[in-house]
Structure formats: C-alpha cells, structure tokens
Amino acid sequence: MKRIVSLLLLSVMFVFCLTGCGGREKYAGKWEAKEMNVNGNVIDSLSGVPLNVMMRFQLNDSGSAEWASPLSNVKDPSLDGITASWKIKDGKIILTVNMKDEKNVIEFTDEDGRLVYDRNGSKLYLDRVDDYSPVDSQAILNSFNSVGSMFGG
User: Who's near 80: CB < 8 A, 6+ residues apart?
Assistant: First the structure.
C-alpha cells in the first residue's frame, strides 16, 4: 500500500513539475527578428541593415538564453560580458539580457507562434529558425558607419 501511495505522490509531483515549467518547450529554440510593423508599414530592414541583425537569440529549456548579436563574439557571447535568461510570466515571455553595465528586460507576446515585441504600437516580429540567417558583419559595420557619418559621427 505504501508503494502505491508513493508512486501516486511521485506521479502527482511529476505532473506539477511539468506544468510548473510553464511550457518552456514551446518557446525553446532559436529566434530572430523578421519584420517590423510601424504605423501600418511592414519593413524588414532599417537603413539597409536587416532586422535579423538587431535581435536574435536562443531560448534554452533550462531558462538560460544565448544572445546572438552578429557583431559580438558569436561563439561565446559571455566573452563580451553578455549573459541572458528567460521565463514565462503572466502569459508573456520575459527575456533578460545582462551586458557589462546594463540590464535589459524585453517582454514578448505570442501571436500565432511568433514572438512579438510591442513598443508604443510598433511591433517587431521574431520567428523560430533552425539556423540564424547568414550575416556579413563587415557590410553591417559599413552600414552603421555610413549612417553615423550622415549625423556627423
């Protein structure tokens, strides 16, 4: 009888553990920005820089995350002082990215399987990907430099 009760309690604990994880497996994987909706206009780049350069990351089942900026040390972002984690809270996906002297908390909602970051009505849409889109880091740096020179930088 004790064995049956023990197995029953173990089963109940297992079920609570699975539901307590909050469905992380649904969001675990690689994500990158694909498009942005600004005042009804859909764009996929800013000043010639593809949106996927601006936001890409991997969410791990454990709650850790890997920020994958193409302009940082892609093999190990922690070498650039970047660490990240995520959780599900109140139906939102909360990504926390810690950089050397800065902490950024980004809230996403799930819209039809896409992660959506909404900032004052402008929405950035991220899609799950098997592999990140290839990026020419030098071309991106050149784009940033040309934009900076337009503003006297």
Answer: 72, 73, 99, 100
Residues 32, 60, 94, 75: what is their CA dihedral angle, to the nearest 10 degrees? Answer: -50
pLDDT band at 119 (very low <50, low <70, confident <90, very high): very high
Where is average pLDDT lowest: 22-26, 40-44, 82-86? 22-26
- Count other C-beta atoms under 10 Å from residue 85's C-beta: 15
Structure-token match 């922690």, residue found: 78
**Residue 48 confidence (pLDDT):** 80
Question: Residue 90 — φ and ψ, nearest 5°?
Answer: 55, 40
Burial class (CB in 10 A: 0-12, 13-18, 19+), 43: exposed
Paired tokens of 21: 């994880």
Element (H, E) at 133: none
pTM over 0.90: no
What the block records as the tokens of 106 is 């980004």
Nearest-angstrom CA–CA distance, 68 and 76: 9
